Structure formats: structure tokens, C-alpha cells
Amino acid sequence: MRMLSRNATFNSHGQDSSYFLGWQEYEKNPYHEVHNTNGIIQMGLAENQLCFDLLESWLAKNPEAAAFKKNGESIFAELALFQDYHGLPAFKKAMVDFMAEIRGNKVTFDPNHLVLTAGATSANETFIFCLADPGEAVLIPTPYYPGFDRDLKWRTGVEIVPIHCTNSNGFQITETALEEAYQEAEKCNLRVKGVLVTNPSNPLGTTMTRNELYLLLSFVEDKGIHLISDEIYSGTAFSSPSFISVMEVLKDRNCDENSEVWQRVHVVYSLSKDLGLPGFRVGAIYSNDDMVVAAATKMSSFGLVSSQTQHLLSAMLSDKKLTKNYIAENHKRLKQRQKNLVSGLQKAGISCLNGNAGLFCWVDMRHLLRSNTFEAEMELWKKIVYEVHLNISPGSSCHCTEPGWFRVCFANLPERTLDLAMQRLKAFVGEYYNVPEVNGRSQSSHLSHSRGQSLTKWVSRLSFDDRCPIHGR
Amino acid sequence: MASSASKNSLLLSKIATNEKHGENSPYFNGWKAYDQNPFHPTENPEGVIQMGLAENQLSFDLVEEWIRKNPKASFCTAEGVEKFRSVANFQDYHGFPEFRQAIATFMSKARGGRVTFDPDRVVMSGGATGANELVMFCLADPGDAFLIPSPYYPAYYRDLGWRTGVQIVPVDCDSSNNFKITKEAVEAAYEKAKNNNIKVKGLIITNPSNPLGTTLDKDTLESLVTFINQKNIHLVCDEIYAATVFSSPKYTCITQVIQDMDCNPNLIHIVYSLSKDMGFPGLRVGIVYSYNDDVVNIGRKMSSFGLVSSQTQHMLASMLSDEDFVEKFLATSSKRLAKRHRVFTKGLEEVGISYLKSNAGLFCWMDLRRLLKDQTLDGEMVLWRVIVNEVKLNVSPGSSFKCVEPGWFRVCFANMDDDTVEVALKRIRALVGQEKKAQEQAQVKSTKKRWQSNLRLSFSSSTRRFEQEGVSVKSPHMMSPHSPMPHTPFVRAIT
């Protein structure tokens, strides 16, 4: 008898992917400004470290919230005992207000429809547990966050079927791609229960267009399935076009509680990216469907938010002066940092997708590939990790269908380290490829190798699994 | 709208729409009664007293004092605030090394220092709720089963089986031997499962026991370890009440037992939490401690779904590594629990209510069998509804713990102050005392007198009508020719 469960014995946790291997390499040899100047610079971690000073100065002026106090009185006992899965009412109110503020108050959220979870990791898994049975499927546009393979599939037994997006239209979702994915699922006898999108997108760093959102809504309406919009990066939309939430589009189309699709549109949120607080494990599920809210609330027992954290953040987010200033300053600093990265990349002859959100750029290194294959992408990636000493995430780990794209993070390291990273990259490209600086437009440069290698023929789109182009567990 | 809702429910998963979350059990109904009418000493003195919640509220003053003296741990000083960003940013599922070390040390101290724990085996989870589910996900597949001695914690049904698809196979224990777990009972349950083609992957025990409040003796533990080794199945020990042991016999934890036995360590796993020992259920600190390296490894990855907030890790790393504080806390907490247990059980004895002798936990396993009209589940429910709705005490009926003997109730005593304990005892006294008076009055009247359907109870300032719900006054049992004296559910227990 197998002693451990299937969950425990197979690699369905997805942590053997290059996304995580890069982190492991970084951990073995991490860059340090003083102690390890030749170490690996971490650019594979989508963290927002740009605005801690704002939170720190708030804390210094408002020590009560962190000290388990309220109005001068200790409320420690009350907080220590509070394990109600409905969450601290004040905190939920503060969360929905913050979510509305991020959306320019174009939509509002009802705190009674918000369910708190231990991070977006837990929120996403909980949604899948609520909406799909083992063996069923969700459609997700590629490229997507590598962690979804674990979060959505591992313990739930649900499959992911990719909606293939390509550079031909800036990786936007098309009606054709949606239909193809749906057919693919049917061919594999997988019942599709919903579509899950990340908006703003990880790894693309772009916000979805209104058109794409309309398309998605029509699609899920037509198929009678769910739409989950993971809006974890909603507060990082730093330049135009502005972020449009799926909830806004529902409103636009006059969908309210009387329309069927109303109850099938759900949002995931978290404070990990916008506020840079991944350690605090604050995630949220938002649904218009009472049954989903009820089921998710019960399930949140397996991963509630610490009451100590709820109390602190409730005070923080209720301070409208702080939130207003934070949102604006966050945008400003992210925009500047992204500009620095883009310019650094350009100096190395590398361009990227025009991004307006997120904590990363979707970088085009296709011209640096030996051949238009994922093997070549892996080769390049290994060189970048082991020789250039930069940890960036290869597109294949995000299930991108086109080789040569990489996600490079810019908000998790100091400016001077970013500059150093760009210098290293420039030196590497110069040494191996002799590529001229890009003139500022988002186009790939022409390749001219010092080693005389030439691009091989375009290979047909690769499948990872010959039976069915869906990544198995 | 209705049809849209039902159409949408077809779109939800089976897990979301089945009842396996178990929240419709009477265990939770009592809570609802409390929620609707909660006792408050001044604002609602006639409200329901919550005695169904196993919380430890006796030693918060010690923790509050520590927090006041150690503001750095709460980011409340300049030095503390400096740590904020590195803490807020830290989401590594290994947890802070200092936190794991502090937990390992605390677990050892909670067991009297008789055993030590390796910080590298400490895996975080979302409370013991998350820990129990995580262990199941690691050890069992949907359809597999775990043996659990009854009576057991009601929420195990949800925690162990709801999303995992794991089945519970009870090992029935009863009062004939003070609810001890016998090897015969475990073997019988195992064989029965096997005969029904149910694959048993392991045994879960809660030690100290909820709801019994007793600790397992060394012999029982050894025989269970022998059993699981023979069958090559897992043993999960939920030791969430480890530091609530307040009197002899001394606590024997599983680590102690396997140290001295020939046992496959890969089969041994511990679930722990700070929710009971420290009274911190809101902080969501659950721990999985396994002697199986694969389980530690996989469990750690799974812990991503329920990590402990780094803010909380940071504070507790500091608090629990303060050895003076921990020692003082454990000693004081134990003393206060012992005292509270003494006061409460004395109060029960005074009115002739018997209970299982216990040395741990936050509750008492009360024997109200003699107060049942029918020694059946229905009889227990009738009595329970009266206790909740009329006596206004939320206690937990034994059936919600899957106890096979009707008439047992778990009553919690550590989640209230001394005054409220007095009020609760007073209500029990008044109820039973009034009943005694009623019996004495009935004795002087004709034995053929018809049982009155209303019994008037008098509390300190008001008179309540007592209605027996669902009880027929003409039931054969009540009018048995063999019992000349009519009984109420609250007849004195002691003879």
C-alpha cells in the first residue's frame, strides 16, 4: 500500500519548474552589495518593496494598532480569541473601501460578500474547490503565473487548459483562442467550469482592455460558466490605459443581480502586491453569489487571516489619508522604476512588451535564442542565471507558447542593484551577441552573432504532452 | 431568481454544495442560540452562557504584561519598526527560523521538558484546523479512512474529510471503562472497515482528549503504537491540549513513547497549535510535526495554503523564546485551570451531577444519563434543548461528539470569569434544587396524580415557565407501573 497520498508522492505541486529552480539557485548564491557582489541578483520575485517607508512612518505615528490597543485600551484578549471566519467587520469594511479606491470608486464592494483567506494562494485554491470537481477544468490564458499549477490543480484535482495568447496581438485574449481552448478541453473529456484571468496580468504587466473583458463576459455567459478575475495587481496599474475591473464592466453592461452572469463573476484580491505585505497572508475572495460566499467562508477555516494582522491593517487601511497618498506614490515609484528597467534593457539591445502595470516587464529575448525553441530558451536562461548571475523567469515556466520571452521583476530590489543588473546584461549581450542598442521602440533587434550561429527555421508550436496539449498533474 | 440560483448551484462543486462541512450539527446549533442571546453580567444577565466553547481565557493578563514590556516585538518602537519591512516581506513557507525554534522549545516545555523537538520538522498551518486537513492530504487519498476513537471533536468531520474525501471510522469507547481506548476496540474497528473494503490509512488520537479531558496512559499509547506498526498504518496525535494538563496523572506525549519503543518513525505525526494552550485561536498558529521526512517536505509546500502571518511569527518568536515568561505562563495557566476545574466540579457534586474524572483540557465531561427520560439520542436531545433554551447554558451534547452512550455532555469552564462560573452553577443548582423540591411535593400527593406539563422554576428574580419539548406526558416510561413516582428529566442523579 502506498504510504503517502497521491498528492504527496507525485510532482503535482509543480515546484520542479524552472520558476522555482531559479529561486533555489539564487538562494545558494544571493547577491549582496557588500558581502557577495558577484552573487545572483533576484529578478524573479514579483515583490513590491518600493513604498515600505510610507507604511513605516504611519506605524511610527500610530503604534496602537500594532500594540493590540484601541483607544488606549488593550484589546489583546479580544483579538487573541477572535477566530470568526466572517472576519473582523472593521477590517472587511476597510478592505472593500480600499478595493473601491483602487478602482477609482467606479465600483463598490459589499463587505458581506468578501471572504478573507490566507493570501491569494489560498483564495485561488478555495475558489477552485468551490467551483469545480476533480477531473473538471478551468481555462487560463497563457502566459500565466507558474504558481497556478500548484494553487489550482494540486489538491483540487482540477485541470488547467491553456488559452493560447501570442505576441501577434500583444498577447491579448481573442475569441478564437477562447473557443479553441474550450474545444480542446472537450476533446480531452474535461468539463470546463470557468475561466480564470489575472488582471493586470502576471507575467505580462499589462491591464486588460475593455474589449477583452467584454469578450470574456460574453464567452462565460454563452457557455454558462464562471469567470474568476484575479486582481491582485490592481493597485499597481501605474500608467494608462487605466485599470478596468471586471466588476466595472458588469456594471457597464447593466448586469445586476437579475442577470445570470452576475453570480458567476468573482474576484480574487490580496495585499501582497499592492501593499507589499506578502508575509501577512491577506487574501480575499469576492463573489456576488451567496452560495459561493457561504461555501468559501466555511472553507476559509483552513486558512484564516491572523486577527493580529486584521487589526493592524484595519487601522492602516481605514486611514484614508494614508491610502490616498500610498496609491498615488506607489504608482509614481513603480512607473519610474519600470522606466529605468526598460531603458536599461534598451541599452542592452533588448525590448519588452509595452507594460502599464505589475511589478515586472515581459521581456523579448527571442533575438538572443540560438533557435526558436524552448531548448534554446532554457540554454539562454541557464546562461543568464549561472553566468550573468541574474535570476529571471523563463516564459516556458509561465506556459508561454512562444520561446524567448522572460519575466523580469523591477520592484523587489534597490535602484542601484537594478542598474548593476542591467550593466551585467548589457555586458553579456555585448560579449555574446554584439547587438546594437534598441532605438526605443518595442521591436526586436536583428541578431548578429559573434559566433556565427544563425537562426534555425521556426519550429511548429510545441506540446509538452503528446497525448493532449494540456499540462498534466 | 430562484431558478437562476439553483442553476448556479449546479455550477458549483460537490464539495461546495454537500453538507460535509458539518455545520448543521447540534454542536453548532447551541452556538446559534448563544449568538442570538448572549449572556452579559450587566447588560444581559438572563442571556445564554456560553459553555460550548473550548477556549482558554484564564491567563491573558500574563501575555498582556509581556506585550507591554516588549513593544519591539509588535513594531511599536523605532527599533521594532525597522524590522517591519523585512517581516512584512517574508513569505517563505519555511517560516522564520527563530519562530520554528521558539515553537520547538515551547512544545518541549509544554511537555515538562521530558522530550525535545527539532525546529526543522516544524511545519506551519492555518491553525490546527489547517494542520489536520494538511496531514490528511499528505497521508490519504479520497475514499481512504482514518480510525478515530469516539467521542471526538465534532469538527473533525469537516477538518479531516470535507475537502480531502477521507472517511472517518469511529472506534467506539464508552463509560464501562471510563472511555479508555482498548486494543480490542481498535482492532475490531479496523477489521470491520477492512471487511467493508475500506482502506484504513491510519489512526488519529487526541491526547489530552477532547471532549473527555483525560490523558492517555502509557500502556494505552504503547499498545496503539504497536498496533499501527503491525498494520503499517499512520498514527496522528493531536496534542493541541498538551499544556492544559493540570493534575496527575502526568502527561505522556507520543514522542516520549516512541523514544522507548521499536517503532517506524515514518508513521508518527503530531498536530499542534497555540489555540488552547496559550489561548490564541485568533492568531491561527497551527503546527504539523512529523517524523516522516517526506511528510515534512511535502507538508511544507502545502503550508503555502495556510501560512502563519509573519507579523504573528515575529511576535511569537520573541515571546516564546523568553524562557522565563514561558515557564511562568505554563505553571500559572496550569494552576488556574486546576482551580477552575475544582470550583466547577465541586459545584456539580453539590447538586449530584457526576462527571468523568479528568486531569486536562478546558472542559468537563458531565454525566447526565440519570436525567434522561429515554436513554436514547432523542432523550439526550430533549434534555439538551431544555438546558440551552430554558436553563440558558450552551453545553455540547455527547451525540455531537459521536458518543455512543446518550446522556453525556461537554461543558467548558475556562472561557469565562469566576463570576460567570458562579452564575452558571447557580442556574444548575436552582434547576436541580427546584426539581428536588418539586419531587418532594409530588411525594405527598397521590401517586396517581397526572404529571404536570409545566414545571415552574424560580431563579433569583423571575419565574420561568418550563416546557418539556417534544415529551409526551403520557409516555409509558413516565407512567410506568414500576415507578410510582413520576420523573422529570432533572431528577437528582445521586442515589
Automatic annotation (TrEMBL), chain A:
InterPro entries: Aminotransferase_I/II_large, Ethylene_sulfur-biosynth, NHTrfase_class1_PyrdxlP-BS, PyrdxlP-dep_Trfase, PyrdxlP-dep_Trfase_major, PyrdxlP-dep_Trfase_small
Keyword annotations: Ethylene biosynthesis, Fruit ripening, Lyase, Pyridoxal phosphate, S-adenosyl-L-methionine
CDD domains attached to this UniProt entry: AAT_like
Superkingdom assignment: Eukaryota
Record GO biological process: ethylene biosynthetic process; fruit ripening
Pathway, per record: Alkene biosynthesis; ethylene biosynthesis via S-adenosyl-L-methionine; ethylene from S-adenosyl-L-methionine: step 1/2
Enzyme Commission no: 4.4.1.14
Names of required cofactors: pyridoxal 5'-phosphate
Molecular functions per Gene Ontology: 1-aminocyclopropane-1-carboxylate synthase activity; pyridoxal phosphate binding; transaminase activity
Reactions performed catalytically: S-adenosyl-L-methionine = 1-aminocyclopropane-1-carboxylate + S-methyl-5'-thioadenosine + H(+)
Pfam families reported in the protein's UniProt record: Aminotran_1_2
Residue ranges of domain Aminotransferase class I/classII large in the record: 41-425
Subunit-structure text: Homodimer.
Family, per entry: Belongs to the class-I pyridoxal-phosphate-dependent aminotransferase family.
Protein name in UniProt: 1-aminocyclopropane-1-carboxylate synthase
Phylogenetic placement of the source organism: Eukaryota, Viridiplantae, Streptophyta, Embryophyta, Tracheophyta
UniProtKB/TrEMBL annotation, chain B:
Reaction catalysed by this enzyme: S-adenosyl-L-methionine = 1-aminocyclopropane-1-carboxylate + S-methyl-5'-thioadenosine + H(+)
Assigned EC number: 4.4.1.14
Entry-linked PROSITE patterns: AA_TRANSFER_CLASS_1
Superkingdom classification of source: Eukaryota
A GO molecular-function annotation: transaminase activity
Region (Disordered) residue spans: 466-495
Presence of the UniProt keyword S-adenosyl-L-methionine in the record: yes
Top-rank EC class of the record's enzyme: lyase
Aminotransferase class I/classII large domain ranges (all copies): 49-428
One BP term from GO: ethylene biosynthetic process
Sorted UniProt keywords: Ethylene biosynthesis, Fruit ripening, Pyridoxal phosphate, S-adenosyl-L-methionine
Pathway note: Alkene biosynthesis; ethylene biosynthesis via S-adenosyl-L-methionine; ethylene from S-adenosyl-L-methionine: step 1/2
UniProt subunit comment: Homodimer.
Protein family membership: Belongs to the class-I pyridoxal-phosphate-dependent aminotransferase family.
Protein name: 1-aminocyclopropane-1-carboxylate synthase
Protein's organism: Pyrus ussuriensis x Pyrus communis
